[in-house]
Amino acid sequence: MKKVAISACLLGNRCRYDGRENYNAKLLEKLKGVEIVAFCPEDFAFGTPRPTMDLIETEQGIKALSNLTGADLSPPVEAYADAFFDTHPDIDLFIGKDRSPSCGVRSAKLYDREKNLLSAEATGLMATKAVEAGIEAWDAEAFVENSQSNRTSRLDV
Ligand code: SF4
C-alpha cells in the first residue's frame, strides 16, 4: 500500500496555531486506499495554540522566526522532520498545508528581515526535508486541483 505523509491539520486535527483545523474533504477523497501518516512539527515543538512564525531570509539561510519574540524556531521543527523521515523512510508522497512556513511546498511566504515579501512560492522547513529526501511533494490545494484532471503522482490517485 502506498504511504502518504500529510499535514495533520488537513485531516481535521486541531493543531493549527490558533487551535483550529484545515480539514480538506476533497483531498481525503483523493487519498482513499493509501496509508496516511500524519505529522505536525509545530504542535510537537511548541504546543497549540502558539504564536505564529514566518520564514525569513537571514545571513545564515532561511529560518523560521517567531512573530512574538523574533527567536529562531527552526531547530525543533527541523529536528522533528529529520526524526519523522528517519522513522518513515518509505514515504511515497508528501502533502503539506499550503502557505505554512513548516509544511507549504511551493506556497510559503518568504520575507527579508524588514518583512518585505521576497517570494510567495517558498518551501517550508519540513517540506524542504521531504524534497531533500527525494520524496514527491505537493501543496494540498495543487494536489486536489491537478488530480481532478490528471494523474498527478506516482500514486496514481
Ligand atoms: S500546517 Fe503543518 S505545522 Fe501547521 S498546523 Fe498544519 S500540520 Fe501543523
Description:
The strands form two sheets. Strands 2-1-5-8 form a four-stranded parallel beta sheet. The chain has a four-stranded mixed beta sheet with strand order 4-3-6-7, with no helix packed on it. 28% of the residues lie in helices and 25% in strands. It has 157 residues and is of the alpha/beta class. The two termini are 12 Å apart. The protein binds iron/sulfur cluster. Iron/sulfur cluster (SF4) binds next to helix 2. Iron/sulfur cluster (SF4) is lined by residues 7-9, 15-16, 40-43, 97, 100, 102-103.
Strand content range:
25-35%
**Strand order in space, largest sheet:** 2-1-5-8
Quaternary structure classification: single chain
Q: How helix-rich are the residues, as a percent range?
A: 25-40%
The assigned structural class equals alpha/beta
Largest sheet: 4 strands, parallel
Q: How many domains make up the 3D coordinates?
A: 1
**So how many helices?**
5
Shape: globular
Could you report the average pLDDT, rounded to the nearest whole number?
95
Q: Find the count of extended strands (DSSP E, 2+ residues).
A: 8
Ligand roster: iron/sulfur cluster
Q: Spans with pLDDT under 50 lasting ≥5 residues? A: none
Order of helices and strands: EHEHEEHEEEHEH
Distance between the termini: 12 Å
Radius of gyration: 15 Å
